[in-house]
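Self-study notes.
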Amino acid sequence: MNGDRLRSGHRPLDDVLGGGLPGNGISIIMGLPGTGKTIIAEQYTFHNARPDRPAVYFSTLSEPLEKIIRFGQDLDFFDAAAVGKSVFYEDLGQVAGRDGLAGVGDHVAAVLKDRRPGLVVIDSFKALRVLADGDAGFRQFLHQLAGRLTAFPAASLWVGEYESAEAATSPEFAVADAIVELAAVPLGQREHRFLHVRKLRGSGFLSGQHGYRLTTQGLHLFPRLADIPAPSGPVPHQPGIPATPTLLPIVDVRQGTDTLRT
């Protein structure tokens, strides 16, 4: 964490986000299963965790906590020595099954008071919906939880298996300060992955779809060239450099073809 920004440790991603996610706000990482939501959440977790400002990773009803930890160990940045010191895993699933959403809110509040974290991850947040007593009950839970989290100096990541259309209808998106969507799109015989910043309060960001790959080092982003600011005014001619620009092949990840650009 750097000031009011939550950084990922991957500069292209931080640049697309205008410096990072809100450092004292709620961010939603959305996407269908297999798009890399948990990987990017773990990436943020281990990059920002400190003994004095630890990261707390809550699992819910979607995947068992043991599974999240087991697959996390395959990632290069996973630091087993940090677990229990600056990274703490908590199982909200058992609390939710026993005490419902009220118990979830109380348990999160107790962990905030005890751990005083700099980052709180809830994975999967969408899975908590099934515990609500109707839409009004879920909205009340959201209001109380968001109030508890934003009153504490910490960043929050809510991870969920949301489809694109749900961002316009699900109430959790209204309280979010940032929304980042991950998607896998079939193009021909291949599948391409794209990251799209749908919302980011109080900051500029690079719009559009940005290609990415998932590796053992985490999410590796390829920002859209069209969104990189160009220098204003004519470029002065320098001796020894041709005044006529050379056409270079630029790969358009959205089309899978080469185009010529100066």
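Second protein, same conventions, sequence then structure:
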Amino acid sequence: MSTARQELLKILARQSFRLGDFKLSSGASSDYYIDCRTTTLDARGAQLTGEVFLDATREQGWEPDAIGGLTMGADPVVVSVAVTSGKIQGFLVRKAEKQHGTGQRIEGFQKKGAKVVIVDDVCTTGSSTVQAIEAARAFGFEVVGVMSLVERQDANGRPNVEKAAAPANFISIFTATDVRKQHLDTSE
């Protein structure tokens, strides 16, 4: 594991991982919660997020014109990768079209036929990621890859995203198990 990736995992475990009783957006209950925004909006966490996502994009052989995802979890990831790369553009997907102005669902980079990577901070059921994939394709983007910072390893999350993403690959930088283990190792 690269040094940047190790450092990012430590920050996630320290700042984003919580044990307790939580209700997830899916309605399910969990004994832990991972709020990646406390890491992706942290100055050092943002730097590392950009670097690690960019490295993963290169390792996959993806050469996207842009990177984007559903607002709000994807927002800091998108900005971090765009800034770190200096050339990959960013876009955000609204949950619904605006009811005023130009009525857009895609904000930022907009070039039909462009190769894009869809990102998310946490993948539980995959719902947010699937919405972003569908909106990107409906706009006219070619989805070449899908990435999540943390995959919660929900029984349906990965299959839902893989089905929606096909033929593009879905990868996660970390699993919830990785983050939990790092959290417990540093808490002792």
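Instructor comment on the second fold: The first strand starts at residue 17 and ends at 23.
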